[in-house]
Amino acid sequence: MSRTAILFLNVFVIATCGLIYELLAGTLASYLLGDSVTQFSTCIGVYLFALGVGAWLSGFLEKSLSRYFIEVELAVALLGGFSAPLLFLSFASLQFFTVVLYCMILAIGTLVGLELPLLMRILREDLDFKHLVSRVLTFDYVGCLLASLLFPIFLVPDLGLVRTSLTFGICNAIVGLWGTWVLQSSLGRGVVFLRVRGVLVIVLLVAGMIKADQFTTWSEDQLYSDAVVYSSTSRYQRIVMTQRANGFQLWLDGNLQFSSRDEYRYHEALVHPAATLVQQPQRVLVLGGGDGLALREILKYDTVEHVTLVDLDPAMTGLSARFPPLEDLNEGAFHDDRVEVINADAMIWMEGSWQPFDLVVIDFPDPNNFSLGKLYTRRFYRQLKSLLAKDAAVAIQCTSPLEAPRSFWCIVNTLESAGFAVRPYRVSVPSFGVWGFALAQLQPFEIPHGCREDLDFLNDDVVETMFKLPNDMLPLATEINRLDNQILVSYYDREWEIAR
Amino acid sequence: MGNNYGRSRSRSTQDIGRRDLLASFLGASGTVFLEGCQSRDTGLPPGELVGPSVALGHRIRDGLRPSFSEHDLQETQVVIVGGGIAGLAAARRLHNAGVEDFVVLELEREPGGTSRSGQSDVVAYPWGAHYVPAPTREFPALVRLFDEVGVFEGTDAAGDPVVAEQFRCRHPEERVFYKGLWYEGLYLSSGASVQDRHQMTRFQAEMDRWVAWRDGQGRRAFAVPMAAGSDEAAVRALDMISMAQWMDQRGFHSPRLRWWVDYACRDDYGLRLEQTSAWAGIYYFCARIPEAGAAARPFVTWPEGNGRLVRHLYSGVQAQCLLGAAATEVIPREIEGKPVVDVLGVKADSEQVFGYRADRVIFAAPQFLSRYLIRDYREQVPQYVSEFSYGAWAVANLTLSEVPRSVGFPLAWDNVLYESPSLGYVATSYQRGLDYGPAVLTYYYPLCDDDSRTGRQRLLQLDREEWAEIALADLGRAHEGIRESAQRVDVMRWGHAMIQPRPGFVWGKARQLACQPFRSIHFGHSDLSGIALFEEAFFQGTRAAEEVLVALRGRVDSIL
Question: Is the complex ipTM more than 0.90?
Answer without folding.
Answer: no
